[in-house]
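Q: How would the structure tokens look for this protein?
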Amino acid sequence: MKAMGDLGFGPIESELYGIGLIPNKHTVLEVRPLRAFRPMLSKDNAFSALNLYQLSLFSSLSYCNFGQEPAEKPIDTVTFPLDPSVGHMFGNSLASYTESWKINSTQTLAYYPLYEDVPYSKRFEILPFDPTLYKKNNRELGPNQEHPATWHFFDDGKAEGGTNTQAFITHHDEIILISVRGTLELVDFVRDTDAEQVPITGGIGKAHKGFYDAYRAMSTFILTYLDSFHVDQKVIICGHSLGGAIATLLAEALRRDTKKYDVLLYTYGSLRAGDADFVNGAADLAHHRMVNSNDPIPSVPAPWMNTRKSIWMPGVVLSFVTAPLGALIFAIGLSRTGGAPYEHQGNLHHFMPVHFKGREQSAVLWDPGCDSIEEAACTKALKKFGDMPDRDAFVMQLFQMSDHYMVPSYIPYAWATLRRWQQTQESGTTVVTKTEYDQVYYQLQEMQERLKAKEAELRFAYQSDRRQYQQEANVLRAEIGRLDTSRQRIHTLSFLKLVPEDIYGSATQAPEHKINVDRWMAKKENSVEVQLAMIPDASSSDLRTA
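A: Here is the predicted structure in token form.
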């Protein structure tokens, strides 16, 4: 059946389990009782392609429900029939030694995590439910009844005055994994725009009010879990979009906690969570921040924002009635008056697409070291006058919203990077090929020319205001200089060769590491030889969904 499925006849995966016994042949079975699969992760703070890929999957899984039935007030047992769901993956599939791959209900391509084969006691745990053994599981306790969903899944969307924040948490003997959901519903979007800066209690600087409220809503849930199950494990946190911003505030709060948790953070398309003072105070937080191509979401909240929702909300409404007045109120609501600007925290890793002839493309993962690549449409370096960005530029960037989604964009790029690095290490070649180097170098040169042309425009625009011209020109010249730094970095990558630790981090120390990797590579989705780790084309339906 598997052979037929691989050829396209019948289901890819059979629902049957077992070993096919051939007549008149001796078959030896190795019995390994109480085994489970768990996702491989590196505990090193250094960036690894393994964590890049694995945590992109679990950031996406955070958009799923926990999937427990009954969801509330269970009597004697709980099940996790919903696939995909957090409970189904950790409570059913992996605990049953099944390699699960679905992390999105509309997903058609199979993106398998890399799994390690472990004793059942070392799996990522979903706590057992048995009222006959555990008094806290008794339904008669009402709201104080404990069951898996209350321990592993946070969702205050139904609570009165809730923030609609959602996250899941699980652990094994070495790692505690936390994933925070991003923007999904209208209420999340309203929170994203609630960008007034508020002081961080017990921390440094100020945070985006909407993100900070969401972090505070879930902090007790997280701390309760850590108080119960943390025994010196590495705390690995991930999140996409809004979830990345909330995860940043959570990770820094845990790092500063009196218990001094060992925290590692990966975010994907994250918004800015705090001001420059917060970022400076969080300099020691191990944070790898992924930005894909021309994803517009990391551009907000812009450095100049300090949005007061009570002001800009009426402004948006009024803009449909009387444009000048509405625009004025809207601008007042978005303009920062005093304080430090919003900034990004963490080490940037940027997916820069490289296009070749035909439909082929690859992606170079690097830290370009300049603002204009990450924020190509809504920054000081591209058509920014005074305190507001050029509207047309930002609108054009919104047409690249597909770059922001996990399943069509971030996950394929992460998979492509992992496969590229694997092949690079196996063949002894460099991370960036000469063809890619030439393409990126040309793009950087073109960007420099554009910024120089912009400087010439400013000279004409500010003929009567020499001081204003000098301020704007200094910004552009600094960015032009940073583009030279970018050229040097891509040049270095064109000579860089990798070792296994670059790809898998601390996971290379596992005794069955090669067996685990070979199992993943045996999947037909991962065994295709792709010289440049070409990114799978998203189907037209995926693009329409995005």
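Confidence is low (pLDDT under 50) at residues 307-337, 375-399, 531-546.

The chain has 18 helices and 16 strands.

Upvote if useful.
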